[in-house]
Structure formats: structure tokens, C-alpha cells
Amino acid sequence: WVLGRHKLATSIVFFFCLSDVSCNSVEQKIYVELNNTVPCVRLLNATHQIGCQSSISGDTGVIHVLESEADLEWPLSKGPNPPYMVLLESSLFTRSIMMKMKNESNRVAGVAVVVPNTSPPEFSPHTTCPNENTGVYSDNYGPNLAHCNTTVWNPRGNGLSYEEFDFPVFSLKEDNETEFIKQCYLDHNRAVNGSAPQYPLCAMQLFSHMHAVTNTPTCMRRNDINFSINPEMVCDPLGDYNVWGSIRPYNDTVFGHKENESVVIAAARLDSRAFFWEVSTGAEGSVSGFVTLLAAAQALREVTHAAPPTRNILFAFFQGETFDYIGSSRMVYDMENGKFVIDLDNIHSVLEIGQVAVHSGTNLFLHSDPVSRRNNTVNDEVREELFSSFFVPLTWPNVSQPLPPSSLQRFLRAQPIPGIVLADHESAFNNRYYESFYDNAANLNLTYPSDLSPEEQLEFVTDTAKSLTDVATVVARALYKQAGGDESLVNTIKADPKIVTQMLYGFLVSSNNSWFQAVMAPELKNILKPSPPEYYVGVAMSSTPTRLVQYLLANLTGACLFVHYGAGIPPHSHSLFLSQMYSYLWVQGIVPPNSTERDSFCVRASVRLTKAVSPAFELGEYASKDYSTWTESRWKFIKARIFLVASRDLEMLTLGVGVAVLFTSLLVTYFISTKADVLFSSTREPASAAY
Ligand SMILES: *[C@@H]1O[C@H](CO)[C@@H](O)[C@H](O)[C@H]1NC(C)=O
Ligand SMILES: *[C@@H]1O[C@H](CO)[C@@H](O)[C@H](O)[C@H]1NC(C)=O
Ligand SMILES: *[C@@H]1O[C@H](CO)[C@@H](O)[C@H](O)[C@H]1NC(C)=O
Ligand SMILES: *[C@@H]1O[C@H](CO)[C@@H](O)[C@H](O)[C@H]1NC(C)=O
Ligand SMILES: *[C@@H]1O[C@H](CO)[C@@H](O)[C@H](O)[C@H]1NC(C)=O
Ligand SMILES: *[C@@H]1O[C@H](CO)[C@@H](O)[C@H](O)[C@H]1NC(C)=O
Ligand SMILES: *[C@@H]1O[C@H](CO)[C@@H](O)[C@H](O)[C@H]1NC(C)=O
Ligand SMILES: *[C@@H]1O[C@H](CO)[C@@H](O)[C@H](O)[C@H]1NC(C)=O
Ligand SMILES: *[C@@H]1O[C@H](CO)[C@@H](O)[C@H](O)[C@H]1NC(C)=O
Ligand SMILES: *[C@@H]1O[C@H](CO)[C@@H](O)[C@H](O)[C@H]1NC(C)=O
Ligand SMILES: *[C@@H]1O[C@H](CO)[C@@H](O)[C@H](O)[C@H]1NC(C)=O
Ligand SMILES: *[C@@H]1O[C@H](CO)[C@@H](O)[C@H](O)[C@H]1NC(C)=O
After folding, report:
1. pLDDT value of position 122
2. What is the pLDDT at residue 153?
3. How many angstroms separate the Cα of 433 from the Cα of each of 169, 193, 441?
């Protein structure tokens, strides 16, 4: 066979040189790998599959650079060389264009979107009514509020993230790589005066084949087939860990209802998503909220030690909320089933921090649930207590409006609990880039003077940090008052702008900074990157944001112990030790000025991680209507490359010649092996016959 292949290859080269295509085109067929690409991948829920995929051997098409919507005519009907690989500027990455291509998917091999460094005026590939089927509003609960009937929260949403495309869609960074592709297009593919361009043409091949199909029940069934028959998993549930911590620690071996225990829950979400896999930056969508909550937790450390409030305060950071409230639904499920340190009856109230990218002159809004507020008990508590806990001009939106998409909805689904959601929008979101890759540092106006070094930027208190500090102060004071703290001390509670600015820098600019290095465990230092972390929940079960928030919450609420080893405290080789009451985290610490060694130390904190995997997978109800059923397909590899293709006719001819040569060599081989004893009469070893 080696002989046969060699002959095939030689004859193809031979053929190219004979034909009027220059021998050069064989050399040009060499592939150029594209390095800065991000695919859109397939996700599945109980009933649908969304996202994108290529065929198993990758999809290849002739590159067409789209210049306007009208220009779609060429790839979709007029162009003579389908299928086309359409290269889009992000301004053309619209629902109308994508749906037209989806409709003609036999002529579209794939799409590559060039992501620019500057943001468009607005863009949200999410739905207009996020998590509409898994919140609290339904036919049984506020039916007139369900399905965003009264308020469309994300009116800019074009829903592209929830569409299914049966061709691959990749993003490309705007840099010399895209220039290289465009040059290849201009040199080879451009239609001159509407006439067909000449071969060879510049083509692109995208590989993103997805193993899972149809929906979650189907792919979970395939996962469950015995390993010997099917050694490959095809999909995994989306999930991670929730991070939580409390002012007073709980004995982590005692679950369920606690007598005489009343807890105020302060919550925020950790995750976000974007159209493309793992590029979500969630600045306003989630970072603004959880940074505020972390800063509020820090602001409460002193006062809650000096004058503990009568109620406990539990800080909860939920993962996977984007995908039908994975984290909060799991915590509520655990509380209902006696698998958490408290249960729902222990909850006094919930204060959730939503999107809070406030700028000067704008208000914050307190959202509450009009349905449970109709119940007088809950109404009184929300109005009198929660509202009066705030100290700055805050506004109630119109009462007939439902809660925005929020974790609180999952608590209300289980029980009428008083609660409010703090956000920067009165009705529809202010965020112009909800769940998109443009919801980044620039969306929060996070800018630094250009002459600062990274370390100076880390310390520089931006205006964004100042305003979030104010919000954190308000939240901390409200929580303290809400928890029954000493009213005379409330005004002493202040969030620290330096900590807020450092967190914004770490979460939105570069997680590899001296502060994050100091608070992390030695073996986790590699997750710090000179870029912001990705906030997509994923399937790996320990994403960077979870770890960062775990260690930061420990640093901001815990206590430093300069302990001796032994006595149950770990040596720094394994740096997390869980006692019944506390987590002990060994952290790197800073490098002192006149030293090269880090001053490692141990932090004792009440910070814990609990699973944020949808109860649907716990219960094996893969078609659940109550819980998130999102899974992510597995794939073998993701790759993109460009190369020049010869014409299809030429390729067919080449193939034909190749096949002819193959058969000839087979015949020759057959002839030689049957006549071997004649031809090679001296060597009679039996093995020689087995070619
Ligand atoms: C899809 O294509 C069909 C015919 O090919 C056309 O009738 C229909 O309007 C198209 N739909 C959209 C959304 O473009
Ligand atoms: C919204 O709810 C009201 C009251 O139930 C109903 O009359 C109306 O048709 C609903 N609107 C939509 C768009 O569903
Ligand atoms: C699954 O996702 C699709 C696409 O977003 C949606 O239309 C459908 O309602 C979802 N199914 C369930 C059970 O939530
Ligand atoms: C793009 O730029 C980088 C760095 O400037 C360089 O290493 C790379 O070779 C360039 N690629 C192309 C295709 O020009
Ligand atoms: C991608 O990386 C490979 C190997 O580093 C390099 O050969 C290739 O030129 C790069 N592609 C582009 C378009 O820069
Ligand atoms: C394209 O058309 C224009 C005017 O119709 C003509 O001047 C030009 O030479 C044409 N270009 C080519 C390459 O045929
Ligand atoms: C799958 O494996 C289990 C245990 O490994 C065995 O009991 C069962 O019979 C197997 N089922 C099939 C269909 O092979
Ligand atoms: C935690 O609870 C367990 C079980 O009730 C008990 O044995 C243990 O002493 C408690 N630990 C602490 C530190 O109170
Ligand atoms: C109001 O909520 C409280 C607390 O959950 C509950 O005990 C009571 O039955 C509710 N009242 C009405 C009228 O629904
Ligand atoms: C950012 O700055 C622009 C213009 O200066 C302003 O319109 C916008 O409201 C600011 N956004 C935030 C979140 O501060
Ligand atoms: C938190 O981090 C800072 C800076 O590294 C450090 O000075 C402080 O001691 C840490 N606090 C705790 C409780 O770990
Ligand atoms: C570092 O310098 C300070 C002040 O110069 C000194 O007090 C301290 O002992 C030095 N530490 C070490 C480890 O040399």
C-alpha cells in the first residue's frame, strides 16, 4: 500500500504539471492555520439543540467577504462556486443576515465573524426575555406577568445565541490574520465586473464537529450506554460550584432546618455568556454585581465582629444563572431537601445585586415581586423593612412590573420570601450588550491614564470604582440593618474604593496582578492570566471566576492565621482544609520588599463551595420543565485554516486519475504476487506473499 500511495501522489503532481494549471498551485495548496479563532459550539436542553457545528471532516467553502446585506446575493444565489465561507464584519453579524444564510445552508459552508476592538452602538445575541420558562412567573403565578408580557427586559436581544446553525460559525480577532484572509480573498476570489473569478480560489475550512445531537435526553441516554460499547461521552451538564460564606460560620455537617435561626441572603450571579464559546466578559451583566457584593462583604467584616447583628448574613454567588438558573435552583433544591446548612424557612429575606453599572446622576432601582407583595405579610416586610434599609435615593419601579430575571425568582418559586433585586434599570436593561462579548471593561467606562504601569493601574481608583463603592456601601448598610445590627453603627460602615478598583482591574483587565497572586493558593497561580477570566459556566466544574471569588471572599471576610503546621492545619502542599466550621486556605501572600520569597500564610474563613449542577441531572429528569437541562456537546477538535482550491472539475479529474492509478497498481501487485515464485524464484519465504 505504501507503494500504491506513493504512486498516487506522484501521478497527481505529474497530472498538475501536465495540465495548464501551473505546478505552483500544488505548493500553494499548503494550509495556513488560523490561530485566533473561537467557535460557536452546540448546547442542548430538554427539547432543542442550539449553536453551530461542522460536518465530521470539516466544512470547506470558497471565501466571500460580505460587504453589505445586499451583497448576500452572491453567496446565496449568484455566485458560481458554492458552497461559500462567508466572512463578516461584526456590523453585519445581525439576525436578518444570519437567518438568511441559515435558510440557504446548502450554499453556505460556514461563517467567520471578525470581532473588532471597538464596540457597536448596541448588540445582544441573547433572547429578549431571558430564562422566561424557568423563573417564577408562569400560568400559575402571575400569569399576566409571565413571558415578559409587561416588561421586555432585553429589547435589544436578537436571539442569535439560541438559534441552531448547521454550519460552523467562528470568530476571528481583528488583526493581521484577518488581513491575511482578506488579502487571499482579494487576490483570488473577487468577482471582477460580476464575472466568475478564476481558479484556484481561496478557501477556508472550519472544523467544529459536535458529538451530541437532538436534545439532552438523547445525549444523556447515549452517555449511559456501557463504556465497552460506547467509550465516548457525547455531552456534559453545564455546571460549576456556587460560592457562599456567612458572617457567622455554620457547622457544615449539620444540614436542614435550624431552630431560632434567621438569615439574610445577599446574592449575586457569577456567570455570563456570549455567542461564541468562552468569550463572555459579563462586565455589567455579572461582574458589576458580584464585585459590589464582595466589597459589601468586606465592608461588613469589622462591624459584624465588633457588634454582631442578631441575624446571620449569607453571601451567595451563583454559577450558571444564564442557563435557566442552574446555581440558585440547585441551592434552593438543596435547602428543600435538607442538604444545605439552612432551609428555606430560615431565610428572613433576600437582597440580590443585579446589574449595577451606575453612573453619576442615575438612580438605582429596587425591584420586588408584585405577586408575593400582594400577601400582606410579605408586602409589609418588603416595604417597611427592606426599603427603609436603604439610605440613598432609590426608586421603586412601577408596582405592576415583575421581577427582572434574577436568582430571587427561584427562591420565590419555592416559597413567598421577602426580597428585592437592586439594579441600574427601571424597566428594560440599560446594558446595551447583554450577554455579548462587548459587555467588557469598556462598557463600564473602565479606563486608565495611559502612562500607568500595570501595578499602578491596579491601584488607580477609577470613577467606575468610586460609584460601585457607593453602591457597595449602601448594600452593606442595608444588610447590616436588615440583619438586626446596631443602628447607631450603620453610618460607620464604608466600602473601600481601593478594594473595588483592584477587583475591577482583576476581573475585567488582568487577573494576573499582584493582589490576586497574593490571595490565591500556590497551586492555583496558573489560572491567573494577563487577561480577564471567562465567565461562561462551562462543564469543567471549577472555572476561574469561582476560584477567584472563593479566595477573594476568604481574604475579604476571613482572618489571617500565622499558624504552625500540624494541629489540623495543612502544610502548604495541599492548601485547602475544611473543618466543620471553617475553610482553611493556604495562600501565596505577597513578596516583601527586600525578599524574593513570598510570605505565605493561612486564611480562616467561612467560605464554602457547593455544587451548582442542575437538580435535573441529580434526579435523572433530563426533560425537566422545572430545572435547567442545558448540556454542552463534546467535540474532538476545533480548527480553522485557509488554502487555495483547484476547480472542482479538476479535482474530480485528479481523483479519477488517482483511482485509475490505484487500480493499475492493484493489478500489478496482484500479478506480481501470483507470479512471485517465477519472478523471485530465489526467495521463498511465505511472508513475502502478504503484501
Ligand atoms: C427561506 O427560503 C424560502 C425559499 O427558498 C423562502 O420562501 C423563505 O421566505 C425564506 N425564509 C427566510 C426567513 O428568508
Ligand atoms: C398580557 O396579559 C394580559 C392579561 O392577562 C393579556 O390580556 C394580554 O393578552 C397579554 N399579552 C400578551 C402579549 O401576551
Ligand atoms: C430549549 O431551548 C429552546 C431554544 O432556546 C427553547 O425554545 C425551548 O423552549 C427550550 N426548552 C425548554 C424545555 O426549556
Ligand atoms: C501577525 O503578527 C504577529 C505579531 O505581530 C506575527 O508574529 C505573525 O507572523 C503575523 N502573521 C501574519 C500572517 O502576518
Ligand atoms: C498560526 O501559527 C502557526 C504556527 O505557529 C503559523 O505557522 C501560522 O502562520 C499562523 N497563522 C497565521 C495566519 O498567522
Ligand atoms: C470592468 O468594467 C469597467 C467598466 O464597465 C471597465 O472599464 C473595466 O476595464 C472592467 N474591468 C475588467 C477587469 O474587465
Ligand atoms: C452494562 O454494564 C453493566 C455492568 O458493567 C452490566 O451489568 C450490564 O449488563 C451492561 N449492559 C449492557 C447492555 O451491556
Ligand atoms: C458539628 O456537628 C457535629 C454533628 O452534630 C458535632 O459532632 C460536632 O461537634 C459539631 N462541630 C462543632 C465544631 O460544633
Ligand atoms: C402570606 O405569606 C405567609 C408567609 O409565607 C404565609 O404564611 C401566609 O399564608 C400568606 N398569606 C396569604 C394570604 O397567602
Ligand atoms: C460612559 O461614558 C459615556 C460617555 O462619557 C457615558 O455616556 C456613559 O453613560 C458612561 N457609562 C458608564 C457605565 O459610566
Ligand atoms: C488579604 O490580602 C491582603 C493583600 O494581599 C493581605 O494584606 C491581607 O492580610 C489578606 N487578608 C486575609 C484575611 O487574608
Ligand atoms: C527588610 O527590610 C526591613 C527594613 O529595611 C527590615 O526591618 C527587615 O528585617 C528586612 N527583612 C528581611 C527578611 O531582610
Report:
1. 93
2. 96
3. 20, 39, 12
d(CA 500, CA 267): 17
In this structure, the number of other CB atoms found within 10 A of the CB of residue 598 comes to: 16
Neighbour order of strands in the sheet with 576-578:
559-561, 601-605, 583-587, 576-578
DSSP for 574-606 reads S-EEE-SS-EEEEE-----TT-SS---EEEEE-
**Cell 440580590 identifies what position?**
352
Instruction: Assess whether the C-beta atom of 555 lies below 6 angstroms from ligand 11.
Output: yes
Residues with CB under 6 A from ligand 3: 45-48, 50, 133, 162
Residue 310: pLDDT over 90:
yes
Predicted confidence at residue 576, as pLDDT, reads 79
Does 17 score more than 90 pLDDT? no
Banded pLDDT at 387 (limits 50, 70, 90): low
Residue 2 pLDDT more than 80? no
C-alpha cell belonging to residue 200: 484556484
Q: Can you give the pLDDT at residue 592? A: 84
Q: What residue type is 534 in one-letter code?
A: E
Cα 163 to middle of ligand 3, angstroms: 10
Cell of 173: 480577532
Evaluate: CB of 176 within 6 angstroms of ligand 4: yes
Rounded Cα distance, 216 and 525, in Å: 35
Residue 142 CB neighbour total at 10 angstroms = 22
Helix intervals (H) in 263-375:
288-306, 326-336, 370-374
Contact 110, 169 (CB under 8 A): yes
Q: Write b or e for each residue in 360-380: b if 16 or more Cβ atoms lie within 10 A of its Cβ, otherwise e.
A: eeeebbbbbbbbbbeeeebee
Residues contacting ligand 2 via CB (< 6 Å): 144, 149
- C-alpha grid cell, residue 487: 443602628
Q: How far is the CA of 348 from the centre of ligand 9 (A)?
A: 14
Residue type, 246: S
Contacts 24+ apart (CB under 8 A), 617-621: 617/220, 617/237, 617/239, 618/333
Q: Which strands make up the sheet holding 239-246, listed edge to edge? A: 394-395, 364-367, 419-423, 347-353, 263-269, 312-318, 239-246, 608-613
Give the C-alpha separation, 619 to 610, whole Å. Answer: 17
The pLDDT, as a whole number, for residue 652 is 67
